[in-house]
Amino acid sequence: MAANKPSRSLLSLLQKRFLLTSSAALSPPTAPLPTSSSSSSSSSSSPSFTVQFLVNSCGLTSKSALSVSKKFQIRENNLQNSQSVLQFLKAHDFSETHISNLIEKRPKILLRRIEDNLKGKFDFFIENGFAGQLLPQLILSNPLILERALDSHIKPSLLYFKSILGTSEKIIAASKRSLFLLTCDWNNIVLPNIDFLIKEGVPVDRVAKLFQFHPQVLQRKHDRMTYAVNTVKDLGLEPEVSIFIYALTTMMQLSESTLKKKVEVLKSLGWTEEEIFRAFKQDPAILRFSEEKIRSVMDFLVNTVGLRPQTIIANPLFLHYSINKRLRPRYNVLKALESKKLFDEGVSIRSLLKMTEKKFMKNYVAKYEHSVPGILDTYKGAQPLILYPESLQAVLLPRFVFSLLGKFGDARIKEGILMEGLEKMAMRFFRIQKRFLATQSTSNSLSSSSSSSFTVDFLVNTCGLPLKSALLASRKLKLDKKNLQNPPSVLQFLKTHNFDETHISKLIEKRPQVLQSRVEGNLTPKFDFLIANGFVGKLLHDLIINHTEIFKRALHSRIKPAFSLLKSILHSNENVVVALKRSSRLLSADLNVYQPNIDLLRKEGVPVDMVAKLIILNAGIILSKRDRMVAAINAIKNLGLEPDNTMFVRALIVRLQMTETTWNKKIEVMKSFQWSEEEIWGAFKRYPQILAMSEEKIRSAMDFYINTLELQRQIIIACPLCLSYSIDKRIRPRYNVIKVLESKGLIKRDKKISTLLNKSEKTFLINYVSRYVEEVPGLFELYKGAAMRTEKDA
User: What is the DSSP string of 129-187?
Assistant: First the structure.
């Protein structure tokens, strides 16, 4: 009895902690967070006005705001400029995250004058290709650029960098790699180094590559650059060879003393100086490794794997590999296969060490999983559980329970686990979890008897599904504990294709049967085909997760023919990817459905590039039934739009997206505003999307234009695009601003309001809001609808 006392005490402790944690997670917060108004009126120790503004208006965390406020203060009576700066940034596509990150880095931007400082710089950036999201990316890569003079620094440096790199994206990439690239003394540092490299014979495209991927090299002192170039040339590498810039990058990163130390380390391991520099010319990165890295890899390859030093010298790439993540796991697998006489002795071990991860996993791990039990664990470096308590999380305990234990921080928990033994302790704790779940109400838990089934346990603990999702999935999938070879193979296969835990859990939630798919007979050939045709990385994940039907479709009779047809129309893998992202059904749909539609469009005279545009804009349309496609084509032609007209496919998309009844209702709505049929079809041919809008949208837009703005019907008919604008987000705010500016005599009353409504957001904000903020206090608030909301609340 005495022996069980520590165990019972420990279980009591765990149960209490589990119940407390769970109840806290299930309970609503007891009190709302204080608002800015309440906090500002609280005690004298409340945050300063600057901190409140940074938190409430700029989106900084309290911690960041406090840190920033030590270097920077905003006066309450001089707040207008800071608010104008925030609005200016938002008008240039800076999100809340962009703004908070920028202000954390350079808070004094809130004190910048818009007209004299920011506007000119932003306009220059936009004119030179930094539009949309590229602009905030550029500024955030180095906010210090806003403190440089536009004419004497920003313009000449940015234009010169663009002449070398070619695109805005490459400039941003280079700036992210070197914090001071855009603000350094480019004329006296960067420019002489670039001119020197070109003069020495380095091709301009290689200089651009060096600039993009290692810009910090070009910011070093010129005498250092001269020394490095001459040293690399003395080793026998000519400036025009492709490896020269990589050797130069390495040499620029090493002092003369560090270079000598690296050479001495290699000499101590049996390399001659000639061999060292021959290997360096093959792979310059070998001299960037730490002395410890060089020694440990050489020791493992020579003394454990048994490679000759000459083999490593001939293959310097080996020095890149991680011992624990690549070399040792592969060596362990090969030794296991050798012991079972499954390894072909004619295969060179160096070729196996250089083999890609996917290929090694397929040919030397997955292939022998049944004949060599535990080989996957050997490859992944699995050790006895007692040596690695953290592995208990994945093997014995549900993940959300293990989070309760943390890193075994409580000494009593640790002691109890060691006394009782891991497996026994885990099973006891698992029973606590089951008992707890069984007592919860159905609204907060899932107390089904199947929650303890092997299938549910596997989906939760191995596949990462939440318990609720696992219970739902278990209705479609039953796993046999005694015959569980396939699901682990599927999971490992997905991981080798870079599916992370979130991808895998989403996929299994949508199609749990994928765990029963055969890797070799089903998954491998489909994945190989998709990858070979451009679906790599995120594109592959998105396609598989969003269209799990692909697992049911035959590769040769359905997927390949569909892909070939699409590519024959769209011409490139990239366009096929775009179309499939809009309708992944195209890859598994019956060719007999959409091949006739494509043929019909071509026969009717729709140019092949327009058919491609139709598929890219709305790929699902091509899957319409043939009789609907025929009717829609004839209807559009009868309106006077010929198939070779660029608007034909857009009109066709709109017509196919609605039934005959809905189509007629839209026409009647337009007629109710005194549009004649001729006017409706004239507007439709100019902007087909007007009939894609809801009846309510059409009514509200027409009502506002005619009864509030007092526009003539002919103006709207001539500009049907106006009907697509949001009344609350675009039209009403602009109308409010225009009326105020007219009332103060700041703009002429004869200014065409329809013209103002069509201006871009940026142009309108700059010319009609920012321009007059000083003469019309509160104009920003009015534009953003604050005044309207206040009036409504009153």
Answer: T--TTHHHHHHHH-GGGGGS-IIIIIHHHHHHHHHHH-SHHHHHHHHHHSTTTTTS-TT
pLDDT digits (tens, 9 = 90+) for 125-154: 888 777 788 888 888 887 888 888 888 778
What pTM does this model have? 0.39
Q: Quick one: 538 exposed, middle or buried, by C-beta within 10 A (0-12, 13-18, 19+)?
A: exposed
Q: DSSP characters for 10-25?
A: HHHHHHHHHHHHHHHH
Task: Dump pLDDT digits (tens) for 258-314.
Answer: 888 888 888 888 888 888 888 888 888 888 888 888 888 888 888 888 888 888 888
Question: Among 552, 573, 608, where does a domain finish?
Answer: 552
Alpha-carbon span 641 to 650, nearest angstrom: 11
Distance CA 193, CA 220 (A): 8
Residue 33 vs residues 48, 59, 310, 586: alpha-carbon distances, Å: 18, 16, 68, 49
Q: Which band of pLDDT confidence, cut at 50, 70 and 90, is reported for residue 445?
A: very low
Domain count for the chain: 2
Q: Among residues 747, 744, 751, which one has the least CA distance to residue 778?
A: 744
Q: What angle do CA 337, 339, 343 make, to 5 degrees?
A: 35
Helix axes 256-268, 291-299, angle to 10 degrees: 10
Task: Round to whole Å and give the CA distance between 617 and 137.
Answer: 28
Range of the domain at 518: 444-552
Structure tokens at 312: 């490593």
Looking at 519, 552, 585, the residue that finishes a domain is: 552
Q: Considering the domain boundaries, does residue 165 fall inside one?
A: no
DSSP string, 87-132: HHHHHTT--HHHHHHHHHH-GGGGG--IIIIIHHHHHHHHHTT--T
**Contact present, 360 and 352 (Cβ < 8 Å):** yes
